[in-house]
Sequence to fold (231 residues):
Amino acid sequence: MAEHPAEPRPSPAVQDYLKAVYGLVEQDPDGPVTTSRVAEALGVTPASASNMLKRLGRMGYVSPVERGVELTGRGRRAALEVVRHHRLLETYLATALGVPWDQVHDEAEVLEHHISEALEARIAAALGHPDRDPHGDPIPTAAGHVAPVSPDLMCDLPDGARAAVARVSDRDPALLRFLAERGIVPDALVEVVGREPFGGPIALRVGGRTVRVPPDAARAVNVRPAAPAAP
Fold:
């Protein structure tokens, strides 16, 4: 990002690992970033992940901690740069080009490594400097500030609770389509109507209709407190 213009841009492979480590911390700030979790996030073998994490350590991007690694200051800056590129690209593809929200992630995965800082700035300005991408993920600012993500999950809401959708995981296009068809998108209001026994679907009131969502799908949705209902 613009704060460190002399810092050379890491290779796409290094960027992918830094973004994966950042993403794991964003999902679970208290959980260790282990080799196996990084390998699973990137779809590589634990041996490949271990070798790359050791390389990132030698490059000064990560440091070892108990049961895993953490980003150094340099690593976090590099991770936030590629995360900013990715989420701005997702937003541009969805809003300016009309690419469906279940397709923008894969497109941005390719493009994020190749846009310049000047183009990044133009995209941000053209979009009005958005603070969230189409899935509700916060877009880091050019200065490296990131809004916190609500840790509350839709699957944990008690019966009768009302909440607003804060973000939806973008890792599974089929899941995004499933949730969108049921109106479960960022800022949508949801109310838990009930649950079927033995781990069955959760019944939700969304946009004036009742929909049913499996617990695993509800686990991919972060929520925040909703404004009180109008009297």
Notes: The chain has two domains: 1-147, 154-225.
